[in-house]
Design goal:
Blueprint lengths: L1 H24 L18 H25 L4 H31 L12
Helix pairs in contact: 1-2, 1-3, 2-3
């Protein structure tokens, strides 16, 4: 369980670092919230950090799921999916929200401008 927790924490840190690097490369441009491509293609360093984060998140999900696999397999599958979604999705979503809010693009359409 300690290995799984350490791998999950390290994966969250790596995904956050990769998202921050990608946001810095896309300064002044709107980032996609959940899916889509970045306006400026991320550097290799960002891709490498994301890949290591994905591998660590898989290790963490398998380790957490292994705890309950023999007694409660559906709980095990649910835990693995929850770990993957949280560890891989949350950091990028939070950084994208903060980046787009700083740009002022998260408020929706501008209704004050005349047609």
């Amino acid at each position: 369980m300690l290995i799984a927790t350490a791998a999950a924490v390290l994966a969250v840190v790596l995904h956050t670092a990769a998202a921050l690097l990608a946001a810095r490369e896309n300064y002044g441009r709107t980032l996609p919230m959940m899916s889509g491509s970045y306006p400026v293609r991320p550097a290799r360093r960002v891709r490498r950090v994301q890949t290591v984060g994905w591998i660590l998140s898989l290790v963490a999900a398998v380790q957490f799921a292994n705890t309950y696999w023999l007694s409660q397999p559906w709980l095990s599958v649910t835990i693995a999916i929850a770990v993957l979604v949280f560890v891989n999705g949350a950091p990028s979503l939070i950084v994208s929200l903060a980046h787009n809010r700083r740009l002022g693009t998260g408020a929706g359409p501008d209704v004050s401008s005349p047609r």
